[in-house]
Amino acid sequence: MGWVNWLLGKRKREEELEEEVRSHLEMAAQDRVERGATTVDAERAARRDFGNAELVKEVTRDVWGWGSLERLMQDLRFGLRMMAKSPGFTVVAVLTLALGIGANTALFSIVNGVLLNPLPYPHPERLVELRESKPNFATGSISYPNFLDWQKDNRTFASMAIVRGNRSYILTGLGEAEQVDAVLVSTGFFEQLSVNPVLGRTFAPGEDRIGAAPTVMITEGFWKRKFGSAEDVLGKILALDGKGYTIIGVIPSTFDLLGSLRTREVYVPIGQWNNQLLNNRAAGLGIGAIGRLKPDVTVQQARADMERVTQNLAAAYPQADKGIGAAVIPLRKWLLGSVEPFLLVLFGAVGLVLLIACANVANLLLARSTGRAREFAIRAALGAGQGRIVRQLLTESTLLAAIGGGLGVLLAAAGTRAALAVLPSTLPRAAEVAVDGRVLLFAGATSLLAGICFGLVPALKTRKPDVQETLKKGGRGESGTRHRAQGALVTVEMALAVVLLIGAGLMIRTLAALWNVNPGFEANKVLTFGFSLPPSMTNASPEAIRAAFRQVHDKFQSAPGVQGVAFSWGAAPLQGDDEWLFWIDGQPKPASESEMNWAIDYVVDYDYLRIMGIPLKSGRFFTAQDDEHVARVAVVDEVFANQFFAGQNSIGKRLHLSGGEILEIIGVVGHVKQWGLDTDDKETLRAQLYTPFMQLPTEGIGGGAGVVVRSDQPAKVFESIRQANNQMSSEQVVSGAQTMSEVIAGSIARRQFSMILFGIFAALALLLASIGIYGVVSYLAGRRTHEIGIRMALGAKRSDVLGMVLREGMKMIILGVAIGLLAAAALTPLMASLLFGVSATDPLTFVGVGAILAMVALVACLVPARKATRVGPMVALRYE
């Protein structure tokens, strides 16, 4: 009722105001008539003396308090009519803004999900990652005994829990045998993250100790897949590697620690890990830990506390812990790593796209405002103030931006879905990327800011109209200032497009350089996958396990399409790492393991070198005779040989492993880029050591290993291997097949993703800049049609006219390219961390991009220039 009363009151007051103005004019006119003036002269004089009646009404409404709202509604209605009056202009402007705002919003949804959203745990600032710090290796895994002492002796942590994600089990008894990925955790892991099970309970104190009764927690997805979400799942037995685990709880599907455990299906207490090295204080075994600091404890205080703890352990266990420290890293920092600069560079790039879109729309509005010069002059003549005209133009531009922003949000939603499909798996927290309230707020703020920015240009250009001159020319006049403003906007567009195109060019060259890097092996014909013996082999004798592996080797070797098969364990190129600790024979044994040398550990079959295509530099590689019955041997890579035997022949040298084994070096092979095509050369640990698969103690292998297969059709041969495997045993599992080419592609996925985005942004920038230069040159040529007609009537050739128009456009192009090259030289060093094999100021990229953009822009100028030369002199002279 309040709104109804307000509207009725407003209408009544408007009627009273109208009546009052009319009565005043009538009384003034009547007074003049009584003094002898004619009726017409009296009414004209009354209106002249009274002044602008509409302006009086506006002032009166302001006194009433709702004049601003009334004017806003008028501006909105008028803006909508103007948009409907020029549908072509409206469509181009809205689509341009939608592309710019949509691209920004889509990328902001990624930045928001990955960088801005807090970790989804209570007080995430108190969560840290814990690792061991070692003299010869930046950080490494924690030994289980050390973790227990850290947990017991620290004074700054409210809780501390183990997490080890790289573990799998063979699941039997629930249909076809399959491999399930597991996470090993300690008691308190879920509690410190405040993760509550949807059913049952978490691990109780003591259930994570060695020798405790086997229990397991399953994920909600696994519960649905294997048990149909039945609530009687608690207490049921899950057969993992032939051992029965009692199901005690179900973890919600929303829990995904750091986005890294999304494929895991079961959680098992660390004490259930059947690994003889678990109690070895010197064995890391890939174990990490998450800690929660006590309230008001800083990371620096925790580091000082852990330094005290590790120093005490080093004194108590010098053989294993001398030189071992504790790395305390804020969880957010550990999670994001190099992702933050990567995303911020991309966000800056897409921001340039929005600036180009705004410049384009500002140019359109500026050209359009020229055609409306007569309208603005009439408004000013009728009493409209400068502010009133500026507000009208800003309202129209904001209305355009709002519509473009709405369409941009729809494009952003689709773009975000597309981005999620191609986001590299190495990007953390990808599951949290979504178009949420903060993203919508960003889109709204961006639209409003864009509307104000590109609306200000024509608004400021029309703030002081020359009323008499404009009315006299009928609105056909054009100021050189406005020409210069349009030219400046095009120059800005060209400069921004140059920066984006150079960024895209550098990313393309980076990716090309990466694909040309020799990884140290031949990837194009190699398949890799995981293999596990049946659970019944878990407690078999070493001889039986080796015999089973040999039988499987022969069976896989005979599968159709297979040219070679080799088992592997330990490190795998570009996938996982493992290390040996050793010292060289003839040198004093180090006082502790932390003082020993490190080497990446590859345990491989005798045919591994041929299958992987790794070159043999000297000596020999393993043969089938290098098995458990002969002395242990080793092969090293060229980095190992140069690092430890520089200037010597490494063949025949002997190494002592930390476990007591003695190896004789029999060959030297090429180096494999274990840590990445672009980062391997920067790592401290690069030396590589190969040992025979059949000489590894079977308790180290267990029942699983990696397999590499050479085939002319590596992507297709896995099915024949699967069939061969099923013929041997229904509980024997092969899984996780990948070609080595796919492994390489995965290792550079983040760079490839950034290249794709840079390419899209650069293409948008090129398109928008080309449209901008075309529009301005076309518009300026159209405004000079009359002049062109006079020139041609006086004898000017078409080529003269063509050159005149082209020169006008090329001035803007050359200046924009020059400014863009200078800006790129200043900005591209910010993306140096994303580059490889190319300088951030690569001359070839800079020159090539400048030439390409100049040619594209020249074509955009040529079209309106040629159109201008086709206008006949008589038509041009009659042009109004």
Could you explain the architecture of this structure?
The chain is built from 28 helices and 22 strands. Strands 3-4-9-6-8-7 form a 6-stranded mixed β-barrel. It has a 6-stranded mixed barrel with strand order 14-15-20-17-19-18. Strand 1 (127-134) and strand 2 form a beta hairpin. Helix 12 packs parallel to helix 15 (437-461) and helix 24 runs parallel beside helix 27 (843-869). It is elongated and about 135 Å long.
Enumerate the strands of the largest sheet in spatial order, edge to edge or round the barrel. 3-4-9-6-8-7
Rg calculated over all Cα atoms: 38 Å
Number of strands: 22
Share of residues in helices: 40-55%
Given the structure, what is the number of helices?
28
Mean pLDDT: 81
What gap, in angstroms, lies between the N and C termini? 55 Å
The largest pleated sheet is described as:
6 strands, mixed, barrel
Apparent shape = elongated
Structural class: alpha+beta
Uncertain stretches? 474-480
